Every structure is written in C-alpha cells, then in structure tokens.
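INFO batch 0412 | record 1 of 1 | parsing
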Amino acid sequence: MVELEDRYTITSNRESGFGRYDVLMEPKNCGNDAYIFEFKVFDPEEEKTLADTVRKALEQIEEKKYDTWLLQKEISRERIKKYGFSFQGKKILIG
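INFO prediction complete | emitting tokens
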C-alpha cells in the first residue's frame, strides 16, 4: 500500500474555479507535483469511445478551472498534472 498522506493533502468534491473537481492531491512538499482527477462514466449517447469520455473529462478540468485553488497556493501550472478517467463496466481508460 502506498502512503500518500505524508506527501499530499487529498480532497474530493470541493469547489475550485467554476465547479467541483472529483479528486485533488495537493503536495505538502513544494517539490512534488499536484494532481487533479476527473472521473466520467462512458455515455454511448454522447461519446463514441472511452477516449472521447477522457477528452470530455480533461475539457471539464480546463473549462471549470479546477486548478484555481492550486494556482492560488502558488503551485505553478507546470507542476499541476491533470487526468481524466473514463469507465465502461470493467473497462477503464486514463488520459
């Protein structure tokens, strides 16, 4: 098991920018990267592939400015990593 609580403050479903991110990992040490995760379930009525769902998740991170909190904490954009997760049953794609 990986212990992250020594290196990160992990929060979920909190306001940042114009919405609520799914999971945010804020580094406790200024040398570590920050992470924003957005999770989406594949909707065949809206997307053709899991990759489309990942793109939608990444677009949401950008459009809703989920990095606002981290930028206010003076974490540089280069150190903020953004990931979209798409799910369809037991299939998952991360981008």
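INFO post-check: Residues 33 and 78 are 8 Å apart (CA to CA).
INFO record closed
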